[in-house]
Design a protein that fits this description.
The protein is of the alpha/beta class. It folds into two domains: about 190 residues, 3-Layer(aba) Sandwich (Rossmann fold); about 120 residues, Orthogonal Bundle (N-(1-d-carboxylethyl)-l-norvaline Dehydrogenase, domain 2). Helices cover about 55% and strands about 10% of the residues. It has 15 helices and eight strands. The protein has an eight-stranded mixed β-sheet, with helices on both faces. Helix 9 links the parallel strand 7 and strand 8. Helix 1 packs across helix 2 and helix 10 packs across helix 14. It is globular, with a radius of gyration of 22 Å. The two termini are about 30 Å apart. Bound molecules: 1,4-dihydronicotinamide adenine dinucleotide. 1,4-dihydronicotinamide adenine dinucleotide (NAI) binds next to helix 1, helix 5 and strand 6.
Length: about 325
């Protein structure tokens, strides 16, 4: 059965990521049930979702299916119980805090809710067609779904979004070894349909792909500052006015393909010797010392008071909206 707009979605955990996932699915037309273990948290999330949706509307990013923030929010309801949240859903998105214990507890609660007789009778599809995606940003799902019953754990995988989740298209899909391959392909299909850009990580690895790339860059950045090759301010300029410009629309592989007349093989022939030398220099693991963290923090605080981080995040979101919109338009050409 194909997943259709009328099919409901449950979002479990109404924090920062849960609110954004609710927007993603509601924007694409799905009824969304938002559940949180803390009473009132989900209903209190609704006004916050409204103002996020309003910002999307102002940036003309609500898409073709949604005409206003009110319409988007009208598709989202706060569910009082988990059973109520998962009744007749085709997708459950887990968004509880990032610890094995909390994720495990939430998954057992989801399994219990799915076994509820009323819930079982309500499905438009069957349990055998539900996707249970976890927003985990580092912990592979086998660490917290492996003790579930077979028929449930086959439906579980990671669907890791990127903050701010309603603006950044990427989602990392990471199946466990026991995830039904049909669930992986369904997850991909649904995410594409709701406007995301999913990638499939072929087997489990800690922190998946995006955060591993981010950590390689950050580790090198801290090292270069610690050894006093560069100031924190100039390091940020290197990315935002250099590498990052290309990386916002081409990956590193496409980048090097265009950086030698005959493509990747040519590039490798010319530069892989030097890259290997650099990899050797970069291979020594080191901690971010208190001192280097202070250097970077002081540099940032010289540019922005800590009280202004919230305001600056709004500026970031506005810039991201412009970029996402431009990319959408240019990708169409
Ligand atoms: P958060 O702390 O803002 O929200 C978590 C919510 O889950 C809270 O409202 C809490 O009351 C609720 N909760 C806890 N146990 C629950 C349960 N058993 N059932 C229902 N609700 C429960 O956390 P945040 O930032 O939204 O993160 C959620 C997940 O998303 C984490 O795994 C995180 O690593 C991941 N993630 C976070 C990103 C970020 O930038 N914050 C980006 C991508 C993924």
């Amino acid at each position: 059965t194909l997943v259709e707009e009328r099919h409901a979605v449950a979002v479990v955990g109404s924090g920062m990521v849960g609110k954004s996932w609710a927007i993603v699915f509601a924007k694409a037309g799905h009824p969304v049930r938002l559940y949180d273990v803390f009473p009132d948290a989900a209903s209190k999330a609704i006004p916050a979702i409204h103002s996020m949706a309003q910002q999307l509307k102002e940036a003309d990013l609500l898409g073709d299916l949604t005409s206003s923030a009110d319409e988007l929010v009208s598709r989202i309801t706060a569910a009082a119980t988990l059973e109520e949240a998962v009744e007749n859903v085709v997708w459950i998105q887990e968004c509880v805090p990032e610890t094995v214990e909390l994720k495990k507890a939430a998954c057992f609660e989801i399994q219990k809710a799915l076994r509820n007789e009323k819930v079982k009778a309500s499905f438009p599809t069957q349990l055998s067609e539900i996707v249970i995606g976890s927003s985990s940003s580092a912990i592979p799902s086998s660490s917290f779904t492996n003790e579930l019953d077979d028929d449930v754990k086959r439906r579980c995988l990671i669907t890791h979004p990127v903050n701010p989740v309603h603006l950044i298209p990427l989602v990392e899909i990471v199946p466990a070894s026991y995830t039904d391959p049909e669930v992986t392909s369904r997850a991909r299909e649904v995410l594409l349909k709701v406007g995301k850009k999913p990638i499939v990580v072929k087997k489990e690895i800690d922190s998946f792909i995006l955060n591993r790339l981010q950590s390689a860059v950050l580790n090198e950045a801290f090292k270069l500052v610690e050894e006093d090759y560069i100031s924190p301010e100039d390091l940020d300029i290197t990315m935002k006015d250099g590498l990052g410009l290309r990386w916002s629309f081409m990956g590193p592989f496409e980048t090097i393909d265009l950086n030698a007349p005959h493509g990747v093989s040519d590039y490798a022939q010319r530069y892989s010797g030097n890259m290997f030398k650099l990899a050797q220099q970069q291979s020594e693991p080191r901690k971010w010392t208190d001192e280097v963290v202070k250097t970077v923090n002081d540099a940032r605080r010289g540019l922005l008071d800590v009280e202004k981080l919230g305001e600056r995040s709004k500026w970031r979101d506005a810039r991201l909206m412009q970029l996402v919109k431009q990319k959408e338009e240019l990708d169409k050409k």
